[in-house]
Amino acid sequence: MQVSFTPAEIVSMVQPKSMRGATSAPIRGLASLSSAVRGDLSFLGNARYKADVAATLASVVLLPLDYPGEPGADQLFLLVEQPSVALARICAHLEQMLWPKPTPGVHPSACVDPGAQVHPSATVGPLCVVEAGAVVGERAHLQAQVFVGRNAQVGADNWLMPGVVVGAECVLGKRVRLQPGVVIGSDGFGYEFVGGKHEKVPQVGQVVIGDDVEIGANSTLDRARFSRTEVGEGTKIDNLVQIAHNVVIGKHCLVCAQVGISGSTVLEDYVVLGGQAGLGGHIRIGKGAKAGGQAGITSDIAAGAFVNGTPAIPFQLERRLAILHQRLPDLFKRVDALEARKS
Amino acid sequence: MQVSFTPAEIVSMVQPKSMRGATSAPIRGLASLSSAVRGDLSFLGNARYKADVAATLASVVLLPLDYPGEPGADQLFLLVEQPSVALARICAHLEQMLWPKPTPGVHPSACVDPGAQVHPSATVGPLCVVEAGAVVGERAHLQAQVFVGRNAQVGADNWLMPGVVVGAECVLGKRVRLQPGVVIGSDGFGYEFVGGKHEKVPQVGQVVIGDDVEIGANSTLDRARFSRTEVGEGTKIDNLVQIAHNVVIGKHCLVCAQVGISGSTVLEDYVVLGGQAGLGGHIRIGKGAKAGGQAGITSDIAAGAFVNGTPAIPFQLERRLAILHQRLPDLFKRVDALEARKS
Amino acid sequence: MQVSFTPAEIVSMVQPKSMRGATSAPIRGLASLSSAVRGDLSFLGNARYKADVAATLASVVLLPLDYPGEPGADQLFLLVEQPSVALARICAHLEQMLWPKPTPGVHPSACVDPGAQVHPSATVGPLCVVEAGAVVGERAHLQAQVFVGRNAQVGADNWLMPGVVVGAECVLGKRVRLQPGVVIGSDGFGYEFVGGKHEKVPQVGQVVIGDDVEIGANSTLDRARFSRTEVGEGTKIDNLVQIAHNVVIGKHCLVCAQVGISGSTVLEDYVVLGGQAGLGGHIRIGKGAKAGGQAGITSDIAAGAFVNGTPAIPFQLERRLAILHQRLPDLFKRVDALEARKS
What is the pTM (predicted TM-score) of this model? Predict the structure, then answer.
């Protein structure tokens, strides 16, 4: 994407606490400290790259307030409280250029049932389907090839990317962003074993998504058996995540890619789950608890705990056991030697 | 969803062995024992919630035959052999209300090749594609934005939800239900390493799905190298599951979310695989075998076995080893102490 | 699929070094040695099936040069350097029959923005969306219901299967094949924790895919924060794989199903990752390194190493530790016995 900002525009976006040096170069790109060329903006987001600042060719560099060095010729240092937050602000401007505001209205190729309500400020893009009884809120954006089922509700300022499926009766809050291929409201996986066959337990509940939730590409959230599967306000879910029926996720959680959460499990607020973690059903993860990648969690986790491994145990213990595990060959030898002593 | 049943309608659906008490409340919702209010139906599906029955406000409660207590005022107890099966029967009625029978016919926005055969009783919904030579059977329902490739066969009473892809030459039995985003007939992952490059082994086989199979959202089933990838009658597959080429899955298996099964592996009938389990290629899982969540299976499993862990071993042994693993710090100390003894 | 080749056509495709016997049977199918019937072609791809050759009913059998046996009556042996490569050549012919060359042009139901460039030799199938500024190269094939976003580039001879999403600004090389449901260019999972909330870090970079890359069904590749997520030439990625933002994958790698690679991690050339392996962020996997299925990799791996387990360690060590782990019950008993000795 073509970027073009003056140094003054950058200053106005990030509102630095102080500045050092100056540059006349227009900003044409963003790059890491070591790969930046003249005309790029860069930043020190992680202290371990500190040594790269002195040699960077970037024309504008975002730095923490306590950074001691001086800029080179034709180089501008902007000192801010959190360089990565400042960078995010710049990227938000870029994002508006990358994703220009869509034109409101329903694309002629979209199939919108006469019994659906689409707000005049909303955009229903090409080849979308909106079934009867569905509601599409103010400024909501169904980009292309999106499906919204019967009586589903898409909230204000939602952005549903290509190929998203929102099943019947499901409800999305405000400012929800669903990446391509997300499925909301697939059937829960519930069967009764009767007469040698798995008889389907119909899944007639909903999925209810809170405000400011984001869900990653091709993730799947099952509808409840008869009540609600819930995702709380501000929670962010990565790609290819599986959320089973009747799961309740609290506010402001982070669920990394390929996590699987089994039925009826509860995540309290601010829980963080590492990639590929798997959670059993009917358990509760306490507020602010964290789990490492690939953790296998089969019982309740206390608030604030940090667990790892399968079965998941406190992180420090898991690390210690992993080290002792690697010393098993030595331990077996030591026991051999002890046995060889005269008793 | 708006529910409205009279108590008499509920009685007629579940056919209880006996009843206690009576209620005049119309049934407006389903809820767990502890969250139910007047007008709700609830049930005792799991003995550990038995204590909740006495205090429930539900107007109608489904209970096992041996439940000893008496209902409250304006409350009806229905005693049945399996309360959760009885509930499933009620939910099946709700499901018919949630998913009304589609109108037969081809939506004008669908692209159906003149060389395809769509039964007059079938429904091809908006923006579906049906290629030449494909057959769509009696009462089959392609909901919306479904793709059915050349010469593929969609059986009678199938329900293919939005975004499903059925690749060329693949065959679906009767009453198959595919959740949104399922891919049937992607290429198997096969390459020959020739001259420093991975040369593609063309994948020209089929996927053949038996009657009464259900597959969860965004799961993927690869076509065989040149024969068939098979899923047997009555098997249920959850979301985000990967089935590689030439896998043969027997009848009435349960495959939980995010399981991966590598090429040419065979599951006999009634196998149950926990979530995120991974199976190597070219192995055989015996009839009725079970694997725990995240199990890593790299060799054959005997019929009826229950395995866990990576590499998967018998469940009881895995549990015992996990406990001993946690006692390693103590064991190292004990060996230290033994070594410190005078020899 | 209906197959029909004369034995002479088979000979012409595989160019054998030598032949034994002869057959008059037209070739109607491909099958394994043990399941083949008259009219089938079979092959010995794996030495452990060698004993099956003598009894096979296949009319034509592909065999390695050193195979000593003689054919039966009406049976033709073709001796080639690599039977499985020879088979792949035959399957390539079948593939052309299975997937006939599409007719160039834009299907009338597709929505192609006037500001997009579609080469006259390309095929844009039914119900595809191509946004403004996008480029679709020579002979590229967008099969059906594909989405190509603003300014994205689809290279020559690409094949994008039904339901593929290529996000804005992303670039695909030549001869790229994307299986159904692949998502290229979903947002990276990046947030700053500010004031008790996860503030989105806009993701404004690209995904750049090299020539001859193949990506499996429903896999997801996130766009970079502001630079590029890259997949090198000739790399093959299986189904349901997650590639996070800023990941750089080298040339000719194999990434098996359900692998997850966290942000900014680098795979050098010829890396092989087994199914369900999980990689942490900001690490480097050296050239030609291999990881077993379900491996959990959290630090750099040296070129050529073969690792296994979680945390991943050298394969041989991991195997040895797994065996010792299973001997823990005995070890505890031995230590009990030592303690019981008189000191």
Answer: 0.94
